[in-house]
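Session log. Operator J.P. requested a structure for one protein chain; no other inputs attached. Running the standard single-chain path with token output.
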Amino acid sequence: MQFSITPDHPCLPGHFPGRPLVPGVVLLEQVLCALEAELGAETGLLRLPQVKFMAPLLPGQTARIELEGQSPRWKFRVLRDAELLVRGELVLEAAGVQP
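Structure written below.
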């Protein structure tokens, strides 16, 4: 799934004034949207036992999300071209999977 956060997104003025970066929580929201699109349904409760932010995404840049795995555990990557921006893991909490 590809996405871009527009320069007029309401999260940007405070993150950071004069040099906006897309906040990590917005990137994670896009990961959740990609997972829900893959599942064809809302996910319910999730845990993020591992998340590592490697590089920033700037407003207007295009990134893509790659998901690997199957319920109840997926690994994800957010990339801009070949550059890794974020990597991590999602776990469906309802499945009773322990960390």
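Operator note: The chain has a mean pLDDT of 91.
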